[in-house]
Amino acid sequence: MKQIKVLGSGCRNCEITANVIAQAAREAGVEVEIEKVTDVAEIMAYGVMSTPGVIVDGKLVHAGGIPGPDAVRAWMDE
Amino acid sequence: MFEAFANLLAFGLLGLDPVSRTGAAVQFFIMDVAKIFILLVTVIYVMGLLRAVVAPERVRAFVRGRPDWQARVLAVSLGAVTPFCSCSSVPLFIGFVEAGIPLGVTFSFLIASPMINEVAAVILIGILGWKLAALYVLAGLVVAWIGGLIMQCFRPERWVEDYVWKIRMGEAELPAPDTSFLGRHRFALGEVREIVGRIWKWVLIGIGVGALFHGFVPAGWVSEHLGGESWYTVPAAVLLGIPLYSNATGIIPVAEAMLGKGVAVGTTLALMMSVAALSLPEMLILRKVIRWPALALFAGVIAVAFTLVGWVFNALA
């Protein structure tokens, strides 16, 4: 099971990012647990200033803007 | 080319009368939609290929620990090439504070970032010519510089919310970008989709307002009231721009229509800067990190600076 965190203060792009990831996981048949991190202090603790950011299994894989579909698929294969 | 296309569509296909108000407005609308969107897509794509955008994380690393004046030069110039989304302004503010970057420098960055960007600059050149584009960029840099300096004099540290000082930022290595041509191409396409998807509404509204102004506001009335003789038109333009919000690109067609009808250059620039940089929603988001006095001061300082810039340009014109 992959632990995925979407970092963002709750803006629209963060919602979209979480949805994109959930869909890619369904398509790849990978079990994921998606958590939305909205607390600024926690977001900053990951070293991210440009939201949305994405953490996969504790590792920062993306920051700033909605991630591309190819990138999201690649996270599922790792 | 765009004009011929717009003429063909508005007067030929739709059968509108070129001298009628509706005809003029529709022709302006078609011409600007074609011109601006083609420019927009091209510029964003090319910038994406070059990866000419700078992430705020990198700006922070770059600016921290430098003497004040160097930090401000960097903040203002990097602010101009950093994409800015108001939903990121809170983490950005905290990140800068945590890095020990002076608040005045952070304010300089917050002014420059939404007001100037490379996309708006290229479209300005395309629509209004390089002279006006240079004036706008120069005025923006000066306001960002001076605005931050003045904020510093008021010791804004005392208005920063307490929790901000306690946040410790982690150091994370951002994933390395894919620098092959295919990787760049994908990134550039993604940028086009993301940015155009975000700002197209502002641009269309801007073109609509510009078209109405172009078609329906009589030139005589404009030169009588907005020609630059009356001192109050500049502060009025700045005040008008505060509740109105648009992206820096969206305001360009409005400026085009205004200048075309003879509105004074300083008044037009003041409105453009105020609409792009002074926005209520962004101010309200910043309330999460600074208290009201600092926000009011911030808005006041920029508004006064825009007014001064407007007056200077009107006087020089």
Could you say which structural class the secondary elements and strand pairing of chain A correspond to? alpha+beta
As a whole number of angstroms, the C-alpha radius of gyration of chain B is 21 Å
Low-confidence stretches of chain A: none
* Name of the CATH class of chain A: Alpha Beta
**How many separate domains of chain B?**
1
Distance between the amino and carboxyl termini of chain B = 30 Å
Shape of chain B: globular
What topology does this entry show?
The complex is a heterodimer of chains A (78) and B (317).
Chain A: E1 2-7, H1 12-28, E2 32-37, H2 40-45, E3 53-56, E4 59-63, H3 69-77
Parallel strand pairs in A: 1-2
Antiparallel strand pairs in A: 1-3, 3-4
Chain B: H1 2-13, H2 21-50, H3 56-63, H4 68-81, H5 89-98, H6 103-115, H7 118-128, H8 130-153, H9 162-166, H10 181-216, H11 219-225, H12 233-241, H13 252-260, H14 265-277, H15 280-286, H16 292-316
